[in-house]
Amino acid sequence: MNAQAPKGTADMLPDVARAWEHMQRVAQDLFARYGYEPAYTPLFEHTEVFTRGIGEATDIVSKEMYTFEDKGGRSITLRPEGTAGVVRSALEKNLTANGAQAKLYYSGPMFRYERPQKGRMRQFWQIGIEILGAAEPSADAEVIAILWRYFEALGIPAASMRLLLNSMGDEACRPRYREKVAAFIRSHGAELCEECNRRADTNPLRAFDCKKSACVKMMSQAPLLRDELCNACSAHYAAVKALVDDLGIPYTEEPKLVRGLDYYTRTVFEIQVDAGLGSQNAIGGGGRYDRLMEEYGGPPTPGLGFALGFERTLLAMQAAGVEVPSPARAEVYVAAVDDSVRDAAFALAQCLRDSGVAAELDHQARSLKSQMKQADRLGARFVAVLGPDELAAGEITLRNMGTKEETRVALASAPAAVEAALAAALG
RNA sequence: GUGGGUGUAGCUCAGUUGGUUAGAGCGCCGGACUGUGGCUCCGGAGGUCGCGGGUUCAAGUCCCGUUACCCACCCCA
Predict the structure, then answer these.
(1) Is the CB atom of residue A419 positioned under 7 angstroms from any atom of strand B?
(2) pTM for the full predicted model
(3) Which of A78, A81, A92, A75 minimizes the C-alpha distance to A55?
(4) How far is the CA of A122 from the C1' of B22 (A)?
(5) Average of pLDDT values for A36-65?
(6) What nucleotides of chain B have any atom within 7 angstroms of a protein Cβ?
(7) How far, rounded to the nearest angstrom, does the alpha carbon of residue A295 sit from its chain's CA centroid?
(8) Distance (Å) from CA A1 to C1' B59?
(9) Do residues A30 and A150 touch, judged by C-beta distance below 8 A?
(10) Contact by Cβ (8 Å): A120, A277
(11) Which of A30, A61, A71, A72 is packed most tightly, with the most Cβ within 10 A?
């Protein structure tokens, strides 16, 4: 059989998995301080959850979803992002009934059928938060602050991060603006690419995302939503900016930041870095989606959130020279001198582990020398040597790997002696 | 979906104008006064040279195809 992982997937082996767990721990600790609670929704949903939420015309829905029919004839899709499922769940379970507020965070794999490259996978992991039922600008600023602080907490220097901010408007001003952009594209069709011309009908705002130089140039003269926002959106945006200013978090207004999902309203934001990500640059982003729950048939419920990419964030951390903490695999290595004491060594290791000490021992019947080498490699501070001599005397030889000092300790009180020795060595 | 690059030991790679048993470093295993690590020395294990055709007396080395990975376009986390 073919032992290769499918295209666009990657095994998370110890080095990466350790980083992943570290990132999760930092996230859990930080998010909890802001009052967010964990919530895990299914990895797959009814396809409609995504088509209605993300939007039929988006790249994600139109060409990147893993969609299949299950044995019951339902159309199922592996989640390409996390927000849609969380909002669907909040609606199903009535988490925001009677004006209640829900603050949730999650992490897990997302799936998009794309050509993989640096910082872009078919299965990729995201950590995200969502706050539902909160319409005030302070919610926007809180979510932005969490994302910023999270990257800082991981060791990515603030100076290497760029926070982009924009407002997408709402149902009062966006449709009007959309038509203006569509009209602009049609009137300059000759100078824009084919794709952008098509966008005039499907999703005119995406023309701002086009990378072709002619389009970039032309679109830079297109009307900006900033100038078309209704009073309410304009006031909301101003309030968010003022709050982020007060937090001392630097940002750049990017009127062309439109993001790839249709559900966004008002505030959208993205954090980018330049090093380590190949041709990608966004490590996290999000925005407000005040109409999403209604789109699912629920009551009008404001909400917003962010998602950050694990793989990209790790790349950014590596580019910044961040060392992921990695504990020693063993505090004590139990070495058996020969076969006659292996069972006793095994029992000793278990005893140490039961008392809370990280203990390792050999399972390959290796020589004592090889076991010592192994102990060194694993970073063990002590080796408990158990041989026929020790066993006969009811003792072990405890070797301090740093000082090479050896002391005889009673086997029966080994755990306590080891703990004391470890405490002394560390203190 | 399109384009470019690369596929040789666990890892990083070298393999000359096609020519005898395919190499190095690191890692791994064992040994260097019979029960002891980090340095050094010695020895050892480990490779269908991505896969399939073709050219040739002879191919890791040339040609064709195929596949995988990487990178880029597109888009996004």
Answers:
(1) no
(2) 0.91
(3) A81
(4) 38
(5) 93
(6) 1-3, 28-31, 35-38, 68-77
(7) 26
(8) 28
(9) yes
(10) no
(11) A61
pLDDT of residue A210: 67
Residue found by looking up tokens 């790349």 in the block: A315
pLDDT in tens, A206-265: 777 766 667 777 777 788 888 889 999 999 999 999 999 999 999 999 888 877 788 999
Q: Which residues pair with A105 in a beta bridge?
A: A38, A129
The answer to whether strand B lies under 7 Å from the CB of residue A411 is no
A129/A174: higher pLDDT:
A129
Instruction: Walk me through the domains of chain A, giving residue ranges and CATH numbers.
Output: 14-173+229-319 (3.30.930.10), 332-422 (3.40.50.800)
User: Has residue A11 got a pLDDT over 70?
Assistant: yes
C-alpha A121/C-alpha A8 separation (Å) is 5
Q: What tokens were used for A343?
A: 């069972």
- Residue position matching structure tokens 């005030």: A136
CB A261 within 7 Å, strand B: yes
Give me the CA A5–C1' B49 separation in Å, rounded. 23
In three-state form (DSSP H/G/I as H, E/B as E, the rest C), the secondary structure along chain A is: CCCCCCCCCCCCCHHHHHHHHHHHHHHHHHHHHCCCEECCCCCEEEHHHHHHHHCCCCHHHHHCCEEEECCCCCEEEECCCCHHHHHHHHHHCCCCHHHCCEEEEEEEEEECCCCCECCECCEEEEEEEEEECCCCHHHHHHHHHHHHHHHHHHCCCHHHCEEEEEECCCCCCHHHHHHHHHHHHHHCHHHCCHHHHHHHHHCHHHHHHCCCHHHHHHHCCCCCHHHCCCHHHHHHHHHHHHHHHHHCCCCEECCCCCCCCCCCEEEEEEEECCCCCCCCCEEEEEEECCCHHHHCCCCCCCEEEEEEEHHHHHHHHHHCCCCCCCCCCCCEEEEECCHHHHHHHHHHHHHHHHCCCCEEECCCCCCHHHHHHHHHHHCCCEEEEECHHHHHHCEEEEEECCCCCEEEEEHHHHHHHHHHHHHHHHC
Check whether residue A7 has its CB closer than 7 Å to nucleic acid strand B: yes
- The pLDDT value recorded for residue A211 is 65
Q: Which nucleotide is nearest to A389 (CA to C1')?
A: B35
